[in-house]
Amino acid sequence: MDDVIDPKKFKLGVLIVDEEHKVLIDYLNRLSRMWGEVYPDLEREVILGLMYYVKVHFTVEEEFIKIYKYPHTEDHLKSHRDFAEKIQSFKKDLESGGRDIRGAIIDYLKDWLVDHISGTDRDLCKYLNSKGVH
Ligand SMILES: [Fe+2]
Ligand SMILES: [Fe+2]
Fold first, then answer.
1. CATH code of residue 81
2. C-alpha 62 to ligand 1 mean position (Å)
C-alpha cells in the first residue's frame, strides 16, 4: 500500500509541532508501506514507538497550551488521553496474541491523525502563531 498521509499537507506553522507530526505520520506510513509483508513484529515496533513518542509530543503541545494560556484546553487534553489509551489497548490486543490488528491500527491512526492534526492541532497552532510562536 502507498503512504496514507503526506506530511507536507499537514504543516501547521509551528516548527517543533510540524517536525514531531512528521514522525507520527511516518509510523502510520511505515505500517501501510509494509502491508502484506511478513514482518511479525512490525505492529509491536509501531505501538511501542508511538507509546514513547506521543509522550514527548503531547508534552510539548501541552506545555505550549499552559505557557500561552490556550483557552480550549480540556478538549485537546482529552483527545490526547483518548489516543494514549487506544494505543495501550492495541498493545493489550497484541499481548493477548492471535488476531491481526495491522488494519485496525492503520484505520485508527489515519482517522485520529487526520482529524486531530487538521482540526484540534491546527486551531492550537493558529493561536500560537498569533502569539508569535512559529
Ligand atoms: Fe494535539
Ligand atoms: Fe499534535
1. 1.20.120.50
2. 8
